[in-house]
């Protein structure tokens, strides 16, 4: 169980984390990630920082082809998926 510092009934905040499916388009692929905030907590949602970093990688800011990439502690793993699609290996 995760400690959640907000009330689910409020009109603002983190409602998007309660959607069971998050869909993104990166590296010419559609990526769908299932989210389960209520049962798995903060590790089971796609955080805005992951979207921003994935966009940064897609812009070519870092050359990933032929390089190893490791993603640590990033929720659902969106950044690692995008890095792999852009040529980063394990």
UniProtKB/TrEMBL annotation:
Its main location: cytoplasm. One of its GO terms (biological process) is methylation. The chain crosses the membrane at residues 37-57, 69-88. It is found in: Cytoplasm. Pfam families: Methyltransf_16. GO terms for molecular function: methyltransferase activity. It comes from the Eukaryota. Keywords: Cytoplasm, Membrane, Methyltransferase, S-adenosyl-L-methionine, Transferase, Transmembrane, Transmembrane helix. GO terms for cellular component: cytoplasm; protein-containing complex. InterPro entries: Methyltransf_16 (IPR019410), SAM-dependent_MTases_sf (IPR029063). It catalyses: L-lysyl-[protein] + 3 S-adenosyl-L-methionine = N(6),N(6),N(6)-trimethyl-L-lysyl-[protein] + 3 S-adenosyl-L-homocysteine + 3 H(+). Belongs to the methyltransferase superfamily. METTL21 family. This is Protein N-lysine methyltransferase METTL21A. It comes from Pan troglodytes (Chimpanzee).
């Amino acid at each position: 169980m995760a400690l959640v510092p907000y009330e689910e009934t409020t009109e603002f905040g983190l409602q998007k984390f309660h959607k069971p499916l998050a869909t993104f388009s990166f590296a010419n692929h559609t990526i769908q990630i299932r989210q389960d905030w209520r049962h798995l907590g903060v590790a089971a949602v796609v955080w805005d920082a992951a979207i921003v970093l994935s966009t940064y990688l897609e812009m070519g800011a870092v050359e990933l082809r032929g390089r190893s990439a490791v993603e640590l502690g990033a929720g659902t793993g969106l950044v690692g998926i995008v890095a792999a699609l852009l040529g980063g290996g394990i």
